[in-house]
């Protein structure tokens, strides 16, 4: 359904479509070779009907699924008109002398590099189809063991987490903790709930060792890893098992949402909102890339379902608990376990699936406990994991061959996309380009309006991924300017993480870091 040749069509004598350079194999779900993305067809007079017809043909095998997104009945007509205007602008650019300006060429390249993925992701996200639950599924809750590693088996969050897991009726729940007090506390409480809960222990706090301890005890076909601050819906297990009907699917991730703790206007409320947007953006990118080429950057360890045969593999467990960086000089790592699991499963040829539907939407707590210092520490840890692992996924694992769109849209982009640098650079390059009269003429004859429009485009693009949250909680729009400022500040967190990626500390849990240090020196 993708065009591959330059064509000249005459439709009923009423319109002409001149395709100068066609977008070859673009927007196909596999995108086998991103280098084939050359340019766009140029549609001239009366092209609306053809555009709508081609869109219908392209999406004939997909179904619109509304999951509290921006309403498609508003989005698609608006985007269609802008697509036509954009294609006409491309036609105008190709015949203009303004394109010979080096600053303008660089601006166009960086602009397209950044915003092509946004446009594609908007369409892919809203066209995503979750896997349905079959009438006679291959796997049920009786085939599931839930592993909950914890270093603090007490408090309301822990109690609610366990209660919600129990409500889904898994075959067994394995709670893995550390320390005599924690073991005693967890055992005492779990005995009052169900016989299907077992409490295990490890000598020192380490999520990887805790997971390994539980995996060795697991007997079911599917293992679900669950953090102790995660809350499942009652429909969770049947829907997270649905993608495993495909025998090639090895791991399934879920959509996540941070609980919005509504409070008075202030810093505590702001940090909670930052946590909300962190997961909203992650959900958007994971669902989009998985819909386009089947890839993901990382299946979150907060909750994911994995075939037990993968986890029980000796080589897998050895690599999982003995990850080192810088040629074996630094480690073993504790943080970033979910990134490693995703990489190893992809390396072994398994498919991944991001099940994005309300029935598997988990809730968690983020940006509440510990305030800003704790949340910033978490951001730094996540950024360090990305700085270490994203280049590995591209160059060492060679995942760009199988998942070219994910490589471009998330992995490669994360390496170069520092908003605090990128946004001013776009404005600067356009400003320099507008010194050329040919560029000014191309963009309408003025030097100020294009800069103003670019500025508002940049600002508007920052509302796309969190749009569903603003739709549900319009009161949070009062924080929008501060969220944008924090986004720019986060660029410096990423830069700091890049130059300190050798630091493998957890950062927000001193007990875990102390145990890791003791293990290393011992």
From TrEMBL:
<keyword id="KW-1133">Transmembrane helix</keyword>
<keyword id="KW-0808">Transferase</keyword>
<feature type="transmembrane region" description="Helical">
    <location>
        <begin position="476"/>
        <end position="493"/>
    </location>
</feature>
<feature type="transmembrane region" description="Helical">
    <location>
        <begin position="442"/>
        <end position="464"/>
    </location>
</feature>
<feature type="transmembrane region" description="Helical">
    <location>
        <begin position="103"/>
        <end position="124"/>
    </location>
</feature>
<dbReference type="Pfam" id="PF13641">
    <property type="entry name" value="Glyco_tranf_2_3"/>
</dbReference>
<protein>
    <submittedName>
        <fullName>Glycosyl transferase family 2</fullName>
    </submittedName>
</protein>
<keyword id="KW-0472">Membrane</keyword>
<dbReference type="GO" id="GO:0016020">
    <property type="term" value="C:membrane"/>
</dbReference>
<dbReference type="InterPro" id="IPR052427">
    <property type="entry name" value="Glycosyltrans_GT2/GT47"/>
</dbReference>
<keyword id="KW-0328">Glycosyltransferase</keyword>
<dbReference type="GO" id="GO:0016757">
    <property type="term" value="F:glycosyltransferase activity"/>
</dbReference>
<keyword id="KW-0325">Glycoprotein</keyword>
<keyword id="KW-0812">Transmembrane</keyword>
<dbReference type="InterPro" id="IPR029044">
    <property type="entry name" value="Nucleotide-diphossugar_trans"/>
</dbReference>
<feature type="transmembrane region" description="Helical">
    <location>
        <begin position="403"/>
        <end position="422"/>
    </location>
</feature>
